[in-house]
Amino acid sequence: MSVLSLQSVSLAFPVDRDISQTRLVLDGITLHLASDEFIAVIGRSGSGKTSLLNLAAGFLKPTSGRVSVDGVDIAGPGADRAVVFQDDALYPWLNARDNVAFPLKLRGIAKGERRLRADDLLAKVGLDNAGAKNIWELSGGMRQRVGIARALASDPRFLLLDEPLGALDALTRARLQQFLLKVWSDSKTGALLITHSIEEAMLLATRVVVLAPNPGRIVADIPASFGRQLLSGKSLQEIKDSPEYRRLHDGLTGLIHADAQEDAA
Amino acid sequence: MTIEVGIIAPTAPVEIQPDAGKPGRGRGTLPISLVTIAVIIAAWSLASVYGVVSPLFLPSPLIVLKAIYNVAVNGFVDSTLAQHTFASLLRIFAALAASIVIGIPAGLAIGTSRIGKGILDPIVEFLRPLPPLAYLPLIIIWIGIGEASKITVISLAMLPPIILSTAAGVKSAPADFVNAARSFGASRLQVLLYVILPSAIPSILTGTRIALGAGWSTLVAAELVAASRGLGFMIQSAAQFLVTDIVIAGIIVIAAIAFLLEILARLLERWFVPWAAHR
Question: Which ranges does the record mark as transmembrane (chain B) (predicted)?
């Protein structure tokens, strides 16, 4: 089992062009993601959620602290931590299959084998017949599924999900949440999900982490089991009606809300 | 109920017209342009028929048409129109090939590397505003009056748009595209070849189209100065003998080819990067 760790990580950005002045975006973040966990990070805009993911991905370097996988500091982005982006970031010059096969091409896998494995992954995300389709012919939900299949193609130990469902309509979003949950439980990868939605975080994650802004810091790290309940066949309505779901929902709403009031004061 | 349907039905098709909401697109300007061209040709004909301008300076459209036919069949100064045109096209495409081979790597270097930008920026910025005819004499001194000098001058005129559009295309590659590749383990070279270069192709093609325009006008000018075949040379020779109809015929052929090159470039864009319209 692998562990992706952020240890006392802080991140400061320069204010405008003045290098001497910096703004603290994240302060003292310590977070360990094991490869059987699903961590959802929630918090209001400006709480540094996406920066946290960019640090884990290696797109950003921490100002202080360490980011490591199994104790080894990361040198930058790597295939062990595949990212799914909010704006899908699929390559429009490649069709759906070649997008999924892209990580395989990077590893020098032969064309025939790439094709087979890409079709396999597309089938896994329910897009059996979409391989030859152009990206712009796919709906938003289909594009995100291609994006998830592409991330899985790089055989990652961790999936980093940067609000992948944020731009979708409510119905598609609900369907993809269940889908994401299943992909995660089948693939045995650790998942780090950035989201705006408390409900999404609760339904998918094994741990919900709450970030507060100015500077971004962890104010809560709460275990959740609703995803496992969903996977074991319990109905969504049943889960949402349960007192423990409502208690956690109120608690998380309160945490984010309290923080908003403090901000306004 | 039935009344409502009756009212709604006739208006519905109007809303699904593909060009609805794009002012000026729905009704094209083509008819207006065609009328404009017709009026110009009519005025030109009338001016010739009534002798407003001496035929020596402005032969009638009919005479020009005959001149085009004549040059096409019998030739002028030792070559037919096709041979003149072919000579010119050969130069332009040789120059295009040279400037693409040099310009795209140069543009990539400017767009991706600080050192590349530092080295190449001053050279491109020096070259870009210079009229090619200003350095043509120097090129002739250096490499003679053969094909090489003409192709060199045309290439120099085509290089800046190709280099600059490549560099601009490289910089416009979305950060997510690059980050995605890096998170799947791409090396720097792989990011460049598989992500940045394809992202830049629409911009590179636009630059190539602009370069073709610049190259074509430079070509004609270069042929005016030193050549034994080519459309520019044909015009220059005809002018020396005051064969105005061939001069005008040459101008029309040059304009027509420039127009065709533009259409060709646009077709290539649509064919090569169908996705550019969907970004």
Answer: 32-53, 89-111, 123-145, 151-170, 191-212, 238-261
B182 has a chain A CB within 8 A of its CB: yes
Count of structural domains within chain A: 2
- Residue B15 has, within 13 A of its CA and on its CB side, a CA count of 5
A45 C-beta neighbours (distance < 10 Å), count:
9
Would A143 be classed as within a structural domain? yes
Residue A219, phi-psi category: left (phi > 0), alpha (psi -120 to 50), beta (remainder): alpha
Q: What domains can be seen in chain B, in order of their start residue? A: 65-278 (1.10.3720.10)
* Pairing mode, strands A64-69 and A72-73: antiparallel
Contacts of B198 in chain A (CB under 8 A): 91, 93
Residue A69 falls inside a structural domain? yes
CB B18 within 8 A of CB B29: no
Q: Are residues A97 and A138 in the same domain?
A: yes
Burial class (CB in 10 A: 0-12, 13-18, 19+), B60: middle
Mark yes or no for CB contact B182/A77 under 8 Å: yes
Confidence of residue A263 (pLDDT cuts 50, 70, 90): low
Q: Does B194 touch chain A (CB under 8 A)?
A: yes
Closest CA to A4 of A189, A170, A169: A189
Distance CA B18, CA B15 (A): 8
Quick one: A187 exposed, middle or buried, by C-beta within 10 A (0-12, 13-18, 19+)? Answer: middle
- Write out chain B residues lying below 8 Å of A104, CB-based: none
Distance of alpha carbon B164 from alpha carbon B38, whole angstroms: 39
Reported as a single tens digit per residue, the pLDDT across B73-85 is 998 888 899 999 9
Nearest CA in chain A to B198: A93
Residue B176 has its nearest CB partner, among A76, A87, A102, at A87
Q: Nearest CA to A146 among A80, A204, A89? A: A89
Q: Which CATH number goes with the domain that contains A200?
A: 3.40.50.300
List the structure tokens of B274. Answer: 């169908």
Q: Is A91 on the interface with B (CB under 8 A)?
A: yes
Same domain, A151 and A250: no
pLDDT in tens, A56-110: 999 999 999 999 999 999 999 999 999 999 999 999 999 999 999 999 999 999 9
A25: its two tokens: 């975006």
Residue range(s) defining the domain that contains residue A68: 36-50+57-77+157-168+177-219+245-265
Q: What is the ipTM of this complex?
A: 0.88
| Cross-chain Cβ contact A89/B194 below 8 Å | no
Nearest to A165 by CA among A75, A226, A67, A84: A84
**Burial of A143 by CB count in 10 Å (0-12 exposed, 13-18 middle, 19+ buried)?**
buried
Contact status of B176 with chain A (Cβ, < 8 Å): yes
The answer to whether A220 and A228 have CB atoms below 8 angstroms apart is no
Among B129, B137, B169, residue whose Cα is nearest residue B153: B137
Select from B174, B184, B275 the Cβ nearest to the Cβ of A134. B275
